[in-house]
Design a protein that fits this description.
With about 300 residues, the chain is of the alpha/beta class. It has 9 helices and 14 strands. It has a single domain, classed as Ribonuclease Z/Hydroxyacylglutathione hydrolase-like (Metallo-beta-lactamase, Chain A). The strands form 3 sheets. A 7-stranded mixed sheet has the order 1-2-3-4-5-6-9. The protein is globular, with a radius of gyration of 19 Å.
């Protein structure tokens, strides 16, 4: 078996809350003594495209930006608790307002600031299933109650299969992948910059979370990752939903891991083992480096059992 890479360290203190609460607009964050102050790190990925990732605590998923003469487009927007920190970080790179905000999926650690931006001049974009989910299910408040999604929280531009924004001497193709992390996932591909933002279809170096309650599926994630792999080349820079900046090889490693974990669990299912016996056997032990505080080896095994059963 191929030797697994060392687990990449990222701060995911409250991701479990964020993705379980569907699209909670208010989520807690924290950081340990001695760590940097809670904030963001900005990295120029390629051309006009930048990546903002959290430091010192959990700020939400990785954020993408394209900056230039045509304006600013942002991909995802993190937790509402870090809105002003996010705005201050963006202001270090540009003083222009956000013209377009692309939502990759419905979880609150990625779209928690929709209302703040949507109430201004920003046009919020998403797959039609994401908007439908917000309209039907509403949002979860800080005290755990469900309420109707505010008008400014909702995307104003939706698409069914794909759409393109032509901005900053580039074409940002926004493509839907069905039944992957959720049923409303969007991947953004900047053709000229050769950058792909995957949303939570890819957790780089970590077991993925598959939100079956919101239409996600194991096979859908695997198929989407294969498509992302096929549309990239050796120079493509890939911004994952969580984890460090990735490459085509990282996508290939993730696909290999998913296929390996699936095969390991499937063998025990076909041997007639019960779910309890399979969990006790810990078939994903060889992949322990991908385990983290929310999607442990046991939780990943359960996700695969859901796919198999």
């Amino acid at each position: 078996m191929k030797t697994l890479h060392k687990k990449r360290k990222i701060s995911l203190i409250t991701l479990a809350i964020g993705i379980c609460l569907h699209n909670s607009p208010v989520l807690a964050h924290g950081h340990e003594t001695g760590k940097p102050k809670l904030g963001f790190k900005t990295e120029q990925v390629s051309g006009s495209v930048y990546m903002l990732s959290g430091v010192g605590g959990f700020t939400g998923g990785n954020i993408g930006l394209t900056l230039g003469d045509d304006g600013v487009a942002m991909i995802d927007n993190g937790l509402p608790s870090v809105l002003e920190i996010l705005r201050a970080e963006i202001a270090k790179t540009t003083d222009k307002p956000i013209d377009y905000l692309i939502n990759t999926h419905v979880h609150g650690d990625h779209i928690g600031n929709n209302e703040a931006y949507g109430s201004g001049q920003t046009n919020v974009i998403s797959h039609q299933n994401l908007r439908s989910s917000l309209v039907k299910k509403g949002i979860t408040t800080a005290n755990g109650e469900t309420q109707k999604a505010p008008k400014d929280y909702l995307p104003v531009i939706t698409f069914s299969d794909e759409m393109t924004i032509h901005i900053n001497q580039d074409s940002a193709k926004i493509k839907h992948f069905a039944a992957a992390h959720t049923d409303g996932d969007a991947v953004v591909y900047f053709k000229n910059a050769n950058v792909i933002h995957t949303g939570d279809i890819m957790f780089n170096g970590l077991f993925p979370y598959i939100d079956s309650g919101n239409g996600g599926s194991f096979n859908g994630v695997l198929a989407a990752l294969q498509s992302i792999h096929d549309m990239s080349d050796e120079k493509t820079k890939i911004i994952p939903g969580h984890g460090p900046l990735a490459s085509k090889k990282d996508v290939a490693d993730t696909i290999e891991m998913l296929k390996g974990t699936y095969t390991a669990v499937k063998a025990l299912v076909e041997a007639g083992k019960t779910d309890e016996e399979i969990l006790a056997a810990n078939p994903l032990k060889p992949y322990a480096a991908y385990s983290w505080n929310f999607i442990t080896s046991e939780r990943m095994t359960q996700q695969i059992l859901t796919a198999l059963r």
